[in-house]
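Slide 14.
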Amino acid sequence: TAAEINQPYIFILPLAGPDPATVRAHADALGRQDRANWSLHVVMSSEHLTVTARDVGQNPRVRFIPADRVLADYLLSLPPQALLHVLHPEGTLSPLFTRVIGATAQRHSDAVLFYSDEDRRTADDTRCSPSFKGDFDPVLIRTLDYIGAAAVWRVGRLVPHIDAAARIGAARTALTEAAK
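Slide 15: predicted structure.
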């Protein structure tokens, strides 16, 4: 449907240091997705941001986000209809990723989180570590890395929880400071 095709996807790529080759590889892989409305947000320390951005070059779909930016502020700046996925620096997505997630998101418009089974593969594309996941279990999601790398969050449904947590954290900080 048109809504599936226009669904915005935001892929977050956390990096520990300057790594323009990884940024370019992920941007190229995302360019092969069959949905055009994506952006890659590279999160790294401010000291590495300028160098990596310069070495990657101009790409209007790639944004660089300082790691010290407040999470709640960042999430509030994103379009609420966007689907958010955190990439593993060494991982790759199936070329059908955005098509499958987009169709699922349309069918389940009330869902906050989408997750799936995932496969790990070697450099020669040999399947080496499949991860099959069961039905949603609130206990498992709070206690284990049950979701893993194959999680997609609906920003508009996630932000109220993050915003509330940020306000509670700010109130705790203010109370702690006032008590000193």
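Speaker note: The two ends are 57 Å apart (CA to CA).
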